Each structure stands twice: as structure tokens, then as C-alpha cells.
Amino acid sequence: MAEMITLRINGRFVAVPPGSSVAAAIMLSGVTTFRPSVTGEPRGPLCGMGVCFECRATINGQSHMRTCQLPAQNAMEVRTGDAI
Amino acid sequence: MRSESFDILIIGAGPAGIAAACAASHGNESGKGLRVAVVDDNANAGGQIWRTQIAESKGATVRNFWSTATKAPLRIPPGAKKWLERFQWSRTRTLTSTAIVAAPEPGLLLAQDLTGPLQLNYGRLILAIGARERFLPFPGWTSPRVFGAGGLQALVKSGLPIVGKRVIVAGSGPLLPAVAATLKKQGGQVVLIAEQADAERLAPFVMNVAASPGKLLQSLRMKASLIGVPYRTGSWPVAVIDRGETLRVTLQSSAGPREVDCDYLACGFFLVPNLELPALLGCDIQSTEKGVMTDAFQQTTVSNIFAAGEITGIGGLDKSLIEGQIAGHAAADNQPAAKHFFRARGRAHRFAAMLRQSFTMRDELKQLAREHTIVCRCEDVTYGQLNSFQTAREAKLQTRCGMGPCQGRICGPACEFLFGWKDDSIRPPMFPVPLENLVS
Questions:
Q1: Do B55 and A64 touch (CB under 8 A)?
Q2: Which end of chain A is more exposed for a tag (fewer CB within 10 A), N or C?
Q3: A21, A42, A47 member nearest B132 (Cβ)
Q4: Which residues in chain B touch residue A19, judged by CB atoms under 8 angstroms apart?
Q5: Can you give the CATH number for the domain in which B160 is found?
């Protein structure tokens, strides 16, 4: 078994198997709503393949990252719930 | 800005792109080698169908040698192994996590990867950018517990735990039983599969599959029953109520509406080809259904640009592999090698036509969206706001429908189905880009 990857999601440490997407790690941390829509509705990933942009979150300070397309890396800082 | 040059540049590292790369790497008719590269927006090659399930403790694992972004041990889906190995041997340059942003002039694409902008120069271009799910709006479909069918499968394959979750798989297409099988294998409880097409419509598809075991090993119903999941034809979701921890899904059928509770709904209505990039490049498109127009050698109406796979019409794995090889050989000026695949392509195209016909959307699905149902998820534009407009352009200007980050990739096909709108105004950038990338 390969070593787990540890990243921080909304201040909470989460360990995931290597190759996991950040989106999967976010849901594993208990978060279902990734971000509010422009009118404040709760939203989460839809397409899982980088097309719909619903799974965006802030990663290492960079906003609007598509978390389903991004493999989790050690020491990543992820923040969900940011509005546009 | 960083710049790279290739004789043949392939966009999309799914089956069509991988097959094209393997073929192109043989070089031209006299065997002269060419600089070939494949670009993909995903972190790994393989596309959606060969998306690797991230490793568990059991099962064979191999080093993920073709990835530049991650070095995780991954499990290779059966059937893909041969192609992925050939792809490795072809020594094709692979640029993953790289999205095409613009096409400023013939022979040049602008892209961005995780480190910034990138210029890609090409002699010939092969588009193998595949398809996405069609999503149709219904009350409640924007809940974070509602995913695409392929969408949830992709998330589970990339590590989302599904153990013990009750899932309804709904929508349309041969993907649904495959999604159910993945979810089940990873410990999910698939309550049922709701396929909108009627059983009578599916009959030719099921029979043809049975008659050609190379296409799919089992018919859809058999596949569903093998994994112990009810497969309901002529059944579709009409509303979802998010109850906090669970969903209440109303499924419609000839027997009337029925409410079923679950944790997640995985719903996608067949597939639509990704036609934005070919449209931006000026390639003629037959229709959303039939995709990019090509000649016998898979060349589009723009010289030196080829197209292969789902973007020339949804047809599945075999069609993608065959067309990819034709495009790869033809782009490498090895027409005799390309011609070997013409007969097989004819068969694949007949299968594709039948596939599309079998999973035609029923008219009732046009009535799913209500006054306040959101159609454009990026800009939160409702059905009621859109209903009065005649064209996509008019709706766009008045409501911002299709102008958000996804650039109409989700609501575009929905609006085409609901209102008959065709939106052909593709403009760069194709994706949201940091301003500094545009400036440089």
C-alpha cells in the first residue's frame, strides 16, 4: 500500500490514497456543498470531468480551481465555500 | 512564453487519441519518424472510459508511467492495458493537465497547464476530444447530491467513497449499467437503474449487442441483472427533493409517478460530442448528433486538421479506436495503412447510428423543467426566464445564459433540446483563464 497523501481542507487534515482527486478529498472531509452559486444556492461537483466548473474551490490561495481535475498533493491547503 | 513544436499534435488522450498516437508514431509510408504529442486536460491519459480506479489494497497495480502530474499506483481497466502499453512504447510526448485555450492562427494553439501559459505549434492536428454527458434540467437537479452518471463514476474512480451509499442511476444510454457496476464494485448500493428509453426502442440495440459480442459483452438488462440491480426502461426522474442527508426522487413511468429515497442521484442523458474546439478552428459540423464532418481519412473541412472518436458522432470505444488509427496514419501520410481500417469503421458507424437511435430522448423530457427550475447553472437562469426567447443569442444577451465559467457546455445541449436553439458563437478563451496568462 502506497503512502497516504495528507492535505488540509478548511483547516482540517484529511488523508487520501495517492491519485485521489481534490474533489474526492473534499467530499471525504464531510463537505458536500463546494460553493454557493451566483444566487447563493448550494452546489457540488456534477460532471466529474472538468467541464461544468461546479466543483471549484480555492487551492493554495488560488481561487476557482477545478478540484475534480486536480490530484491531491501533500500539504495542499483547500478552502471551499468561496463565492464568485 | 514556453513554446513547443510537433509534426502531429493530438488533442485528447482517450481511446481515439491514444490510437491516433500509436498509429502516427509508425511514421509515414517510408517509415520516417515524426514528433508526435498528445495533450489532455486530465491529470492522466486514458480519457473517461479508461479512467483508472485509484488503487485499493487488493488487485494488481502498475506504476502510473504515463502521468506527469502524479506517481500513484493505479489499477488499469481491462481492455485498456494493451492500448496503454502500446501508447507507452510509442514514446509519444504526453502533456497532461493541459487545456487548450485559444487558436490564434493556423498551426498554433494556446494552452495552459498547472504552471502557466504554453504555445503549441503543429504541422497537423488531430482532434480526439470526446464527449460529455447531456444534462437535462428538472426540479432539484442542482442539489449537491445530484451528480452526472458518468460524473459520479469519475468521482468514485478518483477516490470518492461510496460504501453504503444508496444511489439511483438514471438518464439514458449504455453508460448507465456500467456506472452501476462501478458503484456496486466500490461498495455502493444501487437502488435501481432508470433508463428513459422504452424497452421496444432498446430491442434492436440489445439484439445487436447479443449478435456481436465484441461490442459489449452483455446486453444492458443482463448486465444490470448480473450485478443484481433492477433495470427499469421507460422510467425517468421528474423531481428531486433534497432532504438534507438524503434525496427523495420522483420517477415517472407509464405506471405513474413513484417516490424513491436515496443518498445520491447519478443522472445523465446519453452523451453529446465536445464540438467547441472544432467550431473555434472553423471545422464544419454536421449536427450536434453527427458531430464534426470528415472525409474518408478523418480529415475535417479544414486542411491538416483531423477528427476522430466521439466528436464525429457518439459511437463508443470501437469506433474511437478505429477512427483514431485512421486519423493517426493519415496525418502521418501513411494512407495505405489508414485504408486497412475502412471496413471496420463502416461496421462501427452502423452500430453508432443504431446506438443513437435506440437512446433517442423521449418528448416528455422537454416538460421536466418548471418555471423556477434553473437551466444555466453558472448564471442561475431559470426556465421561466428563458422560455420567451427565440434564439440562444437573444437569451444570452438578455439573461447571461451560457456566459458563465462553463461557457454553455452544460446548458447549451439542454437549451438545444428544450428550445431548439443552436449556439454557434464560440469565442476564445475556451475556458476561464487568469488574466496574466492572456496578457503574456
A1: no
A2: N
A3: A47
A4: 52, 54-55, 64, 70, 72-74, 158-159
A5: 3.50.50.60
The answer on B127 and B9 residing in a single domain is yes
Residues of B in contact with A27 (CB under 8 A): 155, 160-161
Of B402, B407, B404, the closest CA to residue B428 belongs to B407
Alpha-carbon distance of B409 to B158, in angstroms, equals 22
| Closest chain A residue to B75, measured at CA | A19
What whole-number percentage of chain B has pLDDT above 90? 71
Last residue of a domain, one of B224, B251, B269: B269
Residues of A in contact with B71 (CB under 8 A): 18
Coil vs helix vs strand at B263: coil
Q: Tell if the CB–CB gap between B155 and A21 is shorter than 8 Å.
A: yes
Do B192 and B315 sit in the same domain of this protein? no
Asked if residue B437 belongs to a domain, the reply is no
Average pLDDT value for residue range B133-139 = 98
Mean pLDDT to the nearest integer, B311-340? 96
pTM as predicted: 0.92
Interchain pair B406, A46: CB under 8 A? no
Residue that terminates a domain, selected from B322, B354, B386: B354
B36 belongs to a structural domain: yes
Nearest-angstrom CA–CA distance, B79 and B317: 10
Q: How far is CA A33 from the centre of its chain?
A: 10
Q: Which domain holds residue B377?
A: 365-419
Largest CA distance in chain A: 44
The per-residue pLDDT for B249 is 98
- Structural domains counted in chain B: 3
What residues of B are in contact with residue A24 (Cβ under 8 Å)? 155, 158-161
pLDDT tens-digit map of B144-186: 999 999 999 999 999 998 999 999 999 999 999 999 999 998 9
- Residue of B120, B151, B135, B155 whose CA lies nearest to B40: B120
Same structural domain for residues B281 and B393? no
Cβ-based contacts of B99 with chain A (< 8 Å): 50
The complex's ipTM?
Answer: 0.96
Copy the grid coordinates of residue B178: 456500467
Is B372 inside any structural domain?
Answer: yes
| B409·A37 Cβ contact <8 A | no
Q: Do B236 and B153 fall within a single domain?
A: yes
Residue B217 has pLDDT above 70, yes or no: no
In a domain, B334, yes or no: yes
Distances (CA, A) of B342 to B53, B348, B400: 33, 10, 44
pLDDT in tens, A23-79: 999 999 999 999 999 999 999 999 999 999 999 999 999 999 999 999 999 999 999
Closest-CA distance of chain B to residue A13, Å:
16
Q: What is the mean pLDDT of chain B?
A: 88
Same domain for B291 and B243? no
